[in-house]
Amino acid sequence: MTATDERLARATLSRTVEPGDEHAGRWLHLHGAADFLDRLRRPGDDPFPGTGAKRVDSWRRRATTAEPARDLDTVHRIGGRFVIPGDTEWPRQLDDLGHARPIGLWLRGPADLRTWALRSVALVGARACTPYGAHIAAELATGLARQGWVVVSGAAYGIDGAAHRGALAADGATVAVLACGVDTPYPRGHDRLIGRIAEQGLVVGELPPDSHPTPSRFILRNRVIAALTRGTVVVEAQHRSGSLVTARAAARLGRHTMGVPGPVTSALSAGVHELLRGDATLVTDAQEIVELVGDMGELAPARRGPVLPRDLLAPAAAHILEAVPARGPTPTTVIARRAGTTPDDTLAKLYELHSLGFVERYGAGWQLTNTATQQSNARRGGT
Question: Backbone phi, then psi, for 200, in 5-degree steps?
Fold first, then answer.
């Protein structure tokens, strides 16, 4: 069988078999695409032992109406292509899906999918997201794009759209994995966004041209997002969110699973928090994501709070400062007793603290300087 025959056969099967059909995937693995179609068209009672008759009848009906040459011509006319296992552009990590592996992928866009998938992260989340969620998704995508990572999502409203836009705004790479044909932008409101992705990135789908989405196709699409990428980040998701399906698929495939926390009172963060209580990793910015999915040594900067002036005191001086009561002047002897040191040592440290502006003398006693604490200029993540 020639490569052209294999491509035509798989193009036929992409219209014949629903995405993720493991029954079909098992027979495809055993017999190949051309023999699968021969068995399907051959008269006989049981061409696929163990597969239900209704399922086989559905395959047969669809196969009789498939026009693979027309589908290939349609995708070529819009500047696309059909990639199958064995092609140099085929991402081998999709093979981890086993019998649920896509039959082939229809693509639009100038980039090489296999190359991009090697350094990619999925950003997914709620369609009806909050402004906080949309902002975080865009910030994460922008940060990842600036560090040379490809942002993969599903082109849906909400978090998906924010992630794609964030990557595009940074002139970065982004991939939209659709649950329909790559010539049929969905949702319609993202027609222009998907067009931009096709020009600057990649639009990917398992279904042939002019195929429309269904609820089950959205769910099955998520396994492709999970398998393509090095890890999946969920930004806002309710308990029954499709984004959690993507994250759990990623975990089953041995990919990194990450979540961005939100308010504990928000139902839109409840699903993310449930992930984080399991094996998912909490992340708050692109650097933390890269630390997980990147190469050895790509570490996020250390996080710490602001450095206050009193943090820089020597331990002995800090100990005396802690012994000075918060209110009212206090004699040196009382401060020494509270600190467990001698009055002479205490008095020496008090004069040192006075020169640094931490305490002041008031009559026969000492009290804390009545000034507002200076704000540190230490940045988050700084050294």
Answer: -105, -20
pLDDT of residue 363: 84
Q: Smallest Cα–Cα separation from 232: which of 219, 245, 221?
A: 245
Contact (Cβ atoms closer than 8 angstroms) between residue 28 and residue 36: yes
Residues contacting residue 283 through CB under 8 Å, at least 6 positions apart = 233, 258, 259, 260, 289, 292
Q: What is the pLDDT of residues 265-287, one digit of tens each?
A: 999 999 999 999 999 999 999 99
Instruction: Quote the CA–CA distance of 222 and 211 in Å, as a whole number.
Output: 17
- Tell me how long the chain is: 383
Give me the half-sphere count of Cα atoms (radius 13 Å) on the Cβ side of residue 383. Answer: 2
Taking a C-beta distance cutoff of 8 angstroms, is the pair 169, 143 a contact?
A: no
Residue 176: both structure tokens together: 């939209």
Tokens of 127: 């369609």
Closest CA to 140 of 130, 151, 128: 151
Q: What's the CA angle centered on 329, arms 328 and 333, to 5 degrees?
A: 130
- Give me the helix-helix angle, 343-355 and 332-339, nearest 10°: 100
- 204: β partners: 107, 177
Q: Report the C-alpha gap between 54 and 69 in whole angstroms.
A: 27
* Residue 298 confidence (pLDDT) above 70: no
Matching residue, tokens 């981890």: 96
Q: What is the Cα–Cα distance from 156 to 180, expressed in whole angstroms?
A: 12
Work out whether strand 80-83 and strand 150-153 pair parallel, antiparallel, or are unpaired.
Answer: unpaired
| Cα–Cα distance, 383 to 379 (Å, whole number) | 8
Q: Give the neighbor-by-neighbor strand order of the sheet with 359-362.
A: 330-331, 365-368, 359-362
3-class state of residue 263 by DSSP: coil
Question: Tens digit of pLDDT for each residue in 25-74?
Answer: 999 999 899 999 988 888 766 788 888 889 988 998 998 889 999 999 99
